[in-house]
Amino acid sequence: MEDEGRGDVQLGELWSEAAMFYVAARHPDCYRQLATEVRSKFTSGADIRSGSQLAGCRYLHACINETLRLAPSGPGTLWREMAEDDTEENGPLVIDGHVIRPGTQVGVCTYAIHHNEEYFPDPFAFKPERWMADDDSAIRTHPAFAPFSIGPRSCAGKTLAFMEVGITVAKVLWYFDFDRPSDNSNLGGGRLGRSGGRGRTDEFQLYDIFTTTFDGPELVFRTRGDFYRELEIATYAG
């Protein structure tokens, strides 16, 4: 993950996986359930690809949704400006009782709405189960869930991004186990006593420069049994 142009994976391409590994390592019960689901759904790492089996990993997708809620790729405000001639055909734009005049910029902070307890109770907690409810409570959260924005200008690559994250996380869990370092490094997390919302030690800290930047996390990966030999065979075959 170093120089651009060399074919290396760039840090910015791994923000969702980094956040998911960070929270999974700090929630052992979630980690075990996630690993069990992936390892029971597939018979080899080569089988982990886009398709019905991957789509059937409900807990995996719930964890992805919850990670994207807690740590969206674009946590800031995506501003929109009311066009000067937009009111001629459609009339004035009214939001929450306020008339938005032409030339006015409006926007919603993604991080703020993702942590609004009106839509997501206990908003700073990692709770994948909130995406698995069979009643209307899960459906009601969807309008407030916008890691890729919403509407006609939302991210065109959203479906591809979900698929890539699902495949990457599932393959990592198939071939490896991972945990926090023995020295309990909290690189990537908040620090007690820090201001500006940086004091939550278990929260993966985001820095908004249109898209997210971050530090860490530090994790220890171990091969799982002899499953890693599949990777060696694939390398030799290539």
UniProtKB/TrEMBL annotation:
<dbReference type="GO" id="GO:0016705">
    <property type="term" value="F:oxidoreductase activity, acting on paired donors, with incorporation or reduction of molecular oxygen"/>
</dbReference>
<dbReference type="GO" id="GO:0005506">
    <property type="term" value="F:iron ion binding"/>
</dbReference>
<keyword id="KW-0349">Heme</keyword>
<dbReference type="InterPro" id="IPR002401">
    <property type="entry name" value="Cyt_P450_E_grp-I"/>
</dbReference>
<comment type="similarity">
    <text>Belongs to the cytochrome P450 family.</text>
</comment>
<keyword id="KW-0479">Metal-binding</keyword>
<dbReference type="GO" id="GO:0020037">
    <property type="term" value="F:heme binding"/>
</dbReference>
<keyword id="KW-0560">Oxidoreductase</keyword>
<feature type="binding site" description="axial binding residue">
    <location>
        <position position="155"/>
    </location>
    <ligand>
        <name>heme</name>
    </ligand>
</feature>
<dbReference type="InterPro" id="IPR036396">
    <property type="entry name" value="Cyt_P450_sf"/>
</dbReference>
<keyword id="KW-0503">Monooxygenase</keyword>
<dbReference type="GO" id="GO:0004497">
    <property type="term" value="F:monooxygenase activity"/>
</dbReference>
<dbReference type="InterPro" id="IPR050121">
    <property type="entry name" value="Cytochrome_P450_monoxygenase"/>
</dbReference>
<dbReference type="InterPro" id="IPR001128">
    <property type="entry name" value="Cyt_P450"/>
</dbReference>
<keyword id="KW-0408">Iron</keyword>
<protein>
    <submittedName>
        <fullName>Putative benzoate 4-monooxygenase cytochrome p450 protein</fullName>
    </submittedName>
</protein>
<dbReference type="InterPro" id="IPR017972">
    <property type="entry name" value="Cyt_P450_CS"/>
</dbReference>
<dbReference type="Pfam" id="PF00067">
    <property type="entry name" value="p450"/>
</dbReference>
